[in-house]
Fold:
Amino acid sequence: MASKESHLTATLLTSILAAVLGSLQIGYHTGNVNAPAKIIEQFFNNTWRARHNQSMPDHSLTLLWSFSVSVKDFGALLGSLGVKCLADSYGRRNSILIVNCLSVVGACLMFASKASESFEVLIVGRLVFGLFCGLVMSLNPLYIQEVSPTDLRGAFATLNQVSFASGILVGMVAGLETALGTEHYWAMMLSLSLIPALIQYLVLPLCPESPRYLLINRGKEKEAEAALLRLRGNPDKVFTELEEMKEEAAHTHTGVTIHEFFKRRSYRQPIILVLIINLGSQLSGFNAIINYSTRMFQARFDEAKYLTLGVGAVNVTFTLVAFFLMERAGRRRLLLTGFISIAVCNLLMTIVDSVLHLVPELRSLQVLVVFCLISAYELGPGPISWFIAAELFDQSGRPIAMAFTSMLNWGGKFVLALLFPPLLKACGAFVYLLFMTVALLAFTFTWIRLPETKGRTFDDIAEEFRGAEGIPLHNKTGFNTFT
Structure:
């Protein structure tokens, strides 16, 4: 325990907390449009009426609102494409600072939409903010994993998800009619993400760049050593980590292109793992419940908005549980527990939703199942899906792997946001069986293929895949990871 405590320098904690201010902003804009949806839709309609002297047709208004909500995820999908270029050209920390300006511009546009009486400005603002989302949700785990000590790497990476979930809850509260989700204040509510954005601009420049980037990507050993000394505060640990980085650098191919990334044999297993874990995480039902929780509860509860706050609170609580368990239970065990629990919850959702019209008293059970599904997601698949790629790839492949992660996550969110309403209409309660199938497939593949990465150096993990080349291997925890 003493060795762990010696890692926790003020510089390390400040660096991580400053970085996760980005994911706080993303969570805020994920949660703040749920409750005041009708008010903003009315703004769209009023704007249309002022221009055309007639109200917008209901189906057009619904389509426009759905597009306005999902355009952030589409922007994030596009933003993901720039992760490698930024991370390798400007460094991990500097890239976070650069893309933060997109958040500022997006928030200002959303705020200006009401004064300019233009819903197009709001949509463009969400698109610009989406570009920020796609970039920063990859850059944050990349920076955090590279500045953190090995035995705390997963826990600190989970703080990115804790910050994201906290932002969702703050956004839900801010969006209530009793707070800022009103006809007069909704534009101000959309601009509040400027506060953490400006704080990040004040604090993050004082934090060191990733020592791994400085040494392996730039060959600046002295600067890497100075950054590591600030982060660790112990010269002995600095020497040990520098030697480990040099060993990794000796095995690392410089300048991996996107074509080489997908062609290299040692990357094939990690790519498939990242693909399955991320799609399993995004397409297993969580995002549908987060996006449509208020409407789901409105049909059965008078105070649906406050039940939605319960969703946000459970979300935050279990990301904190994952933070404390990450370095004890390990990534593999938490992923397996999360996926199988999500599958069970989706089966229960199907059963409860199917008989709810016959037994209305089961509505409280439906809420409980929703809370359990969110808990299962945040216990493992939620936080781990965002950072597992950083652990499975070496230094040269890591930025592309994180961009790939971001594309899968935001692409999954975007597709689900578009498809869930028509799927729910077509399949009814049985739509949750589709989510259950996805969760079971992710559980099966994780059980068979994923090695435990807890407490292992980046080079140690990469060596397992370098040595694999399709040959069965056993990792250090005794699991058969390739069959």
In short: The chain has two domains: 9-207, 254-468. Residues 9-207 form a domain with the Growth Hormone; Chain: A; fold (CATH 1.20.1250.20).
